[in-house]
Amino acid sequence: xxxxxxxxxxxxxxxxxxxxxxxxxxxxxxxxxxxxxxxxxxxxxxxxxxxxxxxxxxxxxxxxxxxxxxxxxxxxxxxxxxxxxxxxxxxxxxxxxxxxxxxxxxxxxxxxxxxxxxxxxxxxxxxxxxxxxxxxxxxxxxxxxxxxxxxxxxxxxxxxxxxxxxxxxxxxxxxxxxxxxxxxxxxxxxxxxxxxxxxxxxxxxxxxxxxxxxxxxxxxxxx
Amino acid sequence: xxxxxxxxxxxxxxxxxxxxxxxxxxxxxxxxxxxxxxxxxxxxxxxxxxxxxxxxxxxxxxxxxxxxxxxxxxxxxxxxxxxxxxxxxxxxxxxxxxxxxxxxxxxxxxxxxxxxxxxxxxxxxxxxxxxxxxxxxxxxxxxxxxxxxxxxxxxxxxxxxxxxxxxxxxxxxxxxxxxxxxxxxxxxxxxxxxxxxxxxxxxxxxxxxxxxxxxxxxxxxxx
Lengths: 223, 223
Prior knowledge:
Two copies of one chain form a homodimer.
Chain A: H1 3-6, H2 15-24, E1 26-30, E2 35-38, E3 46-51, E4 54-59, E5 65-71, E6 76-77, E7 93-96, E8 100-105, H3 107-116, H4 118-144, H5 147-162, E9 166-168, H6 171-178, H7 182-194, E10 198-201, E11 204-207, H8 210-219
Antiparallel strand pairs in A: 1-8, 2-7, 3-6, 3-8, 4-5, 4-7, 9-11, 10-11
Helix pairs in contact in A: 3-4, 5-8, 6-7
């Protein structure tokens, strides 16, 4: 896939704007686990995913994490270029969760075009609004869903993303996705195991009853 | 104050765009407690506050609330016109927390201008990003601050907004701001009272030691 076909508003750019992006664009292949962007330390640029998976998360002063959202093929990561919008007053970290091919659009070039072009500015709007919506969804989960439901949902999602029922995940890594301490994860996973939904071994969570996990996602009430 | 002086990008509009807004704009005075916008039921329009105070909150299926942010003089409420941006996939409720004078810009007129005008689209971007930042701040509080710290902070904020140390607030209303059940609020307020920070009576929380409340805000660790 060419950049032209992956960047949603390409056809609405002027020739000069197209050239400005093409001249500044670069392509990167990053290995799973690479940190692509780290908070306010840098204004990395916009990341357009050709193929792969990125994870955006935040970090507390005490080192606790929570995953905000994940970005898939053809998604655009804008918060890694948060310097282009003054009112973005928070920092995220972006990590490759799989080996990923992506394009990086430098912040200055994008910002310059966004200032001139209503289509690019409106596209940017939609991207921010989409991430905002994901964070709102997450907040509602944290506020109003019980932890068993969130954990069940996470295991099912991960199993679908990795296309396997045998998940290589430590309890700490799961806690980092969900924003909970490791001990809380361990306690709930042991309960899931006692109910026959998973089988636990060192660094592995094997899903043994998908239906039952799914029923937890749907029936869970408020916490 | 005229609308022209309150609307930030007025000078960047064309004459036709100015006329389009002027012809569609209307002014409203709403009493404290008025619900101005309720979720996806309506696309109310953009609300520009001339003078007053609005509160934006979300509601769970079980009827629990949490305040997302408040809007002050000259702030623009955009999520009450969420139909103008397709990717906004969540519903908020907007309520007047004080008697409020405001202008309503109908959604269609604004959307039409935003599609043509890079300055308006970029201004819209900044507004969404500012609200997104407030929600991110709130999420970090919920995840990583203890409830005593959040409650102390809320009481101090409310005291500053209402310019009094005697707050007319039920425990339920406080719970609705902070996203916690009433019993949790009552328990913590009784602890604050036993520590001499507040005095409680029916429907009233009187702040008796601001310094001590403030120290709770600053020293509170992760939950």
